[in-house]
C-alpha cells in the first residue's frame, strides 16, 4: 500500500504547512517556479443538475471485506509524523461502482458538453484563484448527501474505524486550558471529483478545514477523505492499468523524504487535515480519477462523556 522514497519532488512552496486555502494568497512571491503575477480571485458558487441515485447504489455490502491499514509513520521515512492519523481502506467500492459514480458526477455538471473544468484554489470567503503552476487538474463539484452517506456506511464496515473517528479533540487556547471536543456528524456532501491527465499535479500543501454554523450548531471538518476511482500500474501492474504516477505523497517539510499511497479503484485514504503535508504527484501516463470529501464534526459544548457516532 505504501511506498517510501527519498527523491525530491520537483516543486517546493516557501509557505510550507499552511492550508491550501491560504498558501497562494498569503505569499505570492514563493519560488521562481510559481507564477510571478498576482493571482486574480474570483467569487464562485457551485450548483449541480439533479441526478437520480439508484436505490441499490452502494446499498449492499461489497463482495469482499473492507480492510483497514493504519499508516505507521514510525516505520516509514517520515517518523516525525508519529501520532498523526492516516488510514488506507481497500475494497470500499468495486470497479463497476467507481465507474458508475464517475458517470453520475459527469451527469451532475451543468455544462453537459464540458463537465470537467480547471480546478481552482480556495482562498476563503467564497473566493477562488486559478493557479495552474500550483494546482493543475480538472474538477467537477457535486453536492449529494445521499451518496456520501452511503460511502460512509461502506467505509464503516472496516473494523474499528467507526470508533476511531467518533471524536476529535483540538487544543484550546493556552489561556483557556484543556481541549475542545468535537463529535462525528457526517461526511461532507460536497464531493470534488478530480481528473489528472499526463503532466498534471497538485503541489505540496496541507488541507484546511471547512466551517459552518446551522441553527446554533457549529461544525468543522478535521479529516480528508480520498476515494480513488481507477487503478495504477504501481498497484496492479502494467497488464491491468494504464495510469503511471499520481500517487498521494506525504512529505517531510524539506520535501526530501516522502511516503506514497498509490491509486487503486475503490481504495479510500483518510487522514487528518492538520500537519500532514502532502501532494498529488505528477501523472506520467494515463489518467487519474479521484474524489475528495471531508468529515464534518460537531462542536461539543458541554461534555464528551459516553460519546459515540450514534449520539
TrEMBL record:
Residue ranges of every copy of the Prolyl 4-hydroxylase alpha subunit domain listed in the record: 84-296
UniProt cross-references to SUPFAM superfamilies, sorted A to Z: Clavaminate synthase-like
Keywords recorded for this protein, A-Z: Dioxygenase, Iron, Metal-binding, Oxidoreductase
Gene Ontology CC: endoplasmic reticulum
Domain of life: Eukaryota
Cofactor: L-ascorbate
One Pfam assignment: 2OG-FeII_Oxy_3
Gene Ontology MF, one: procollagen-proline 4-dioxygenase activity
Record's protein name: Prolyl 4-hydroxylase alpha subunit domain-containing protein
Organism: Colletotrichum musicola
Amino acid at each position: 500500500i505504501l511506498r517510501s522514497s527519498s527523491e525530491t519532488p520537483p516543486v517546493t512552496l516557501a509557505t510550507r504547512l499552511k492550508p491550501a486555502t491560504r498558501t497562494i494568497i498569503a505569499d505570492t512571491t514563493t519560488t521562481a517556479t510559481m507564477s510571478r503575477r498576482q493571482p486574480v480571485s474570483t467569487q464562485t458558487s457551485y450548483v449541480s443538475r439533479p441526478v437520480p441515485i439508484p436505490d441499490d447504489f452502494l446499498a449492499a455490502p461489497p463482495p469482499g471485506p473492507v480492510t483497514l491499514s493504519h499508516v505507521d509513520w514510525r516505520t516509514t521515512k517520515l517518523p516525525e509524523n508519529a501520532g498523526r492519523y492516516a488510514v488506507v481502506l481497500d475494497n470500499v467500492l468495486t470497479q463497476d461502482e467507481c465507474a458508475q459514480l464517475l458517470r453520475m458526477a459527469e451527469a451532475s455538471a451543468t455544462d453537459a458538453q464540458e463537465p470537467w473544468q480547471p480546478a481552482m484554489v480556495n482562498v476563503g470567503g467564497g473566493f477562488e484563484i486559478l493557479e495552474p503552476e500550483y494546482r493543475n487538474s480538472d474538477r467537477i463539484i457535486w453536492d449529494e448527501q445521499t451518496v456520501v452517506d452511503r460511502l460512509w456506511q461502506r467505509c464503516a464496515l472496516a473494523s474499528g474505524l467507526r470508533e476511531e473517528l467518533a471524536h476529535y479533540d483540538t487544543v484550546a487556547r493556552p489561556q483557556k486550558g484543556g481541549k475542545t471536543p468535537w463529535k462525528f456528524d457526517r461526511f461532507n456532501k460536497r464531493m470534488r471529483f478530480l481528473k489528472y491527465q499526463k503532466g498534471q499535479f497538485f503541489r505540496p500543501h496541507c488541507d484546511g478545514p471547512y466551517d459552518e454554523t446551522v441553527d446554533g450548531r457549529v461544525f468543522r471538518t478535521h479529516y480528508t477523505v480520498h476515494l480513488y476511482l481507477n487503478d495504477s500500474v504501481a498497484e496492479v501492474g502494467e497488464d491491468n492499468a494504464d495510469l503511471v504516477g499520481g500517487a498521494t505523497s506525504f512529505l517531510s517539510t524539506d520535501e526530501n523524504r516522502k511516503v506514497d499511497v498509490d491509486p487503486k479503484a475503490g481504495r479510500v485514504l483518510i487522514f487528518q487535515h492538520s500537519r500532514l503535508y502532502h501532494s498529488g504527484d505528477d501523472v506520467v501516463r494515463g489518467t487519474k480519477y479521484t474524489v475528495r470529501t471531508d468529515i464534518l464534526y460537531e462542536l461539543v459544548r458541554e461534555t464528551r462523556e459516553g460519546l459515540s457516532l450514534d449520539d
